[in-house]
Amino acid sequence: MPNPDDILETIFADSHKPAYTVGRGMYEPGRAISFPTNKIHSGIIRARSTLMADGLLHLDTDPNVVQLSPYPMEIAYWSTHDGKTPVKRDHIPDIAIILRDDRVMFIDYIRLNEQAETPFFWRRVAERKRHFQEELGCV
User: Fold this and answer.
1) How far apart are CA 115 and CA 132, in angstroms?
2) What are the domain boundaries of the chain?
3) If one looks up domain 4-136 in CATH, what number appears?
4) Which tens digits make up the pLDDT trace of 26-36?
């Protein structure tokens, strides 16, 4: 199993490429936004939604945020299909950030109505959070 420190170092390296590329209006037609920032080596993050672009504005202006990594990596974690049946799920976070105190956080931008419509949404959030804490030592 790879060393968590090596994984985190890789996703924040200048040569890192996002786990996927957001095309023009990929998730919301006409809503993909190029967000300029000095907190990433390329200088541009392709936000997949206006909600994400708004969140990036807050991260970009926060002095405690040192570096950003959009769509940093794909993870596989154990979840349940119906609350009981185990299933392995894949997930790519929207953004990873390094804070001034060297903590690393992963953030997903999900609209409130999408959260309400997704069965077992909060259980999946807890499962992903546990995965990032246990496997990578993140908050």
Assistant:
1) 20
2) 4-136
3) 3.40.1350.10
4) 555 556 889 99
